[in-house]
Design brief:
Blueprint: H1 2-19, E1 26-29, E2 36-39, E3 53-59, E4 64-71, E5 80-95, E6 107-111, E7 124-126, E8 158-160, E9 163-170, E10 181-183, E11 190-199, E12 202-210, E13 215-224, E14 231-241, E15 251-256, E16 276-278, E17 287-292, E18 295-303, H2 319-322, E19 333-337, E20 372-382, E21 404-409
Antiparallel strand pairs: 1-9, 2-3, 3-4, 4-5, 5-6, 5-14, 7-8, 9-10, 9-11, 11-12, 12-13, 13-21, 14-20, 15-17, 16-19, 17-18, 18-21, 19-20
């Protein structure tokens, strides 16, 4: 009988150990000086989270950007180049002519997320979900009172003014809906980078999520404190994919409408797209596939986020500002010859920075030949004040904008 009890006690202890979640990695790099870092993170001595990725990150002039991104599907194998650099160079906002509840003429701002815009006045909690002033647990309603600070962070969390790097898993799809995120030290746990920016009356939370299976999920949540209840944002994501790190790039970009094409092969995919700017036909949830003629067997697939809104709305009621048809900012994507740190920008009264005209030359005539940067435009139509109440968005459950990126083939 004693032996049975001892065996049962030992078994219970083993089950407790198995069920007890592993300690996760969490670290904050302060906002000053301008934060930067690397994964694998040297502070992560226990090697929590997936170790299949390697990249650098920084906050400078183009949001929370990543560079020199490499991945290997199998540990112990050489990591292959995926991205030279990915960033968020522009975040224009536009107020149309005389929108409901907000009289006035059309105007806009050419917002950029720089290190000086990190929201040091309102630190967030470096945890499985960034806890901002929006989601204080003791509020009867998310926006009551309309402003405030986070106060004390949850147990084992860190109050952060810069960039939080942590390991976690998302237990309930879809990714980046702010729900079901649990800190985890599993060897396959996601790597999540988070930062909060403040520009005027707007607050933005930007994140990068790297998954063990070779997926990357960039996202931005946007909220404002302006009284005006009608405006639109456009998020300029720039992805300088480069799969060939031993020779000259020879990128091939194909489009699949409305998504769902096989990862490999030609079924449903377009021919190689030229340097161009364009739209998803009928607001389809399009996919794009980027490969390289000199690199066989692997590619990158970019998927439109289901939360994307109509790009044409960004230009609504702009006749007094831009003239009839003068707003050309209603695009979903551009393919341009890559020129670091970024392509030619054009300042425009309509908050447009990549006018279609600069995409007209053939790719072969541009610098670096067929070294291409893929621009993905996400659209936020803040027509409903409930989606951007004062200091309450981003918060748990709010919409995250940005594409999904998958590595396909042999990595």
């Amino acid at each position: 009988m004693l032996t049975c009890r001892l065996l049962l006690s030992a078994l219970a202890l083993i089950l407790l150990i198995v069920k007890t979640p592993a300690v996760a990695f969490r670290a904050c790099t302060p906002a000053v000086p301008a934060p930067s870092g690397h994964w694998p993170d040297p502070r992560n001595t226990a090697l929590f989270g997936t170790q299949k990725w390697q990249f650098d990150w920084q906050v400078a002039q183009e949001g929370l950007e990543i560079s020199n991104v490499r991945y290997a599907a199998q540990l112990g194998q050489p990591k292959k180049l995926v991205l030279l650099r990915a960033s968020l160079p522009f975040l224009p906002v536009h107020y149309p002519d005389s929108p409901p509840g907000c009289p006035g003429t059309a105007h806009g701002y050419s917002d950029q997320l720089t290190s000086g815009n990190l929201d040091t006045a309102h630190p967030f909690c470096c945890y499985h979900v960034p806890t901002t002033v929006c989601n204080l647990p003791d509020r009867a309603q998310a926006c009551n009172p309309p402003s405030g600070t986070v106060g004390s962070c949850p147990a084992n969390a860190i109050s952060c003014t810069g960039v939080c790097v942590g390991t976690q898993v998302d237990t309930t799809p879809p990714l980046e809906d702010g729900k079901g995120e649990v800190v985890s030290g599993s060897s396959s746990a996601d790597i999540v980078l988070s930062a909060t920016f403040k520009l005027g009356g707007y607050q933005f939370v930007q994140r990068w999520r790297f998954q063990d299976n070779g997926s990357i999920r960039p996202s931005l949540r946007a909220g404002g404190v302006h009284n005006c209840q009608w405006h639109n944002h456009q998020i300029y994501w720039r992805f300088h994919f480069q799969l060939n790190d031993v020779g000259n790039p020879s990128a091939v970009i194909q489009q699949c409408n409305p998504g769902g094409c096989p990862d490999t092969g030609g079924q449903g995919w377009s021919a190689n797209l030229p340097c161009m700017c364009g739209n998803r036909p009928g607001a389809a949830t399009s996919w794009w596939r980027i490969s390289d003629n000199a690199v066989a067997g692997r590619a990158v697939v970019i998927e439109t986020n289901a939360s994307e809104e109509d790009p044409s709305v960004f230009c609504e009621n702009t006749t007094s500002e831009c003239g009839q048809g003068g707003c050309v900012n209603g695009r979903d994507f551009c393919m341009l010859g890559a020129m670091e740190p970024h392509e030619t920008f054009i300042t425009s009264g309509c908050n447009d920075h990549l006018q279609d005209q600069i995409a007209q030359p053939a790719c072969a005539s541009l610098p670096n030949g067929t070294d291409l940067a893929f621009w993905y435009f996400a659209h936020i139509n803040h027509h409903d004040p409930c989606t951007f109440l004062p200091m309450c968005d981003p918060a748990i459950g709010t919409v995250a904008f940005g594409p999904s990126i998958r590595l396909v083939g042999t990595w």
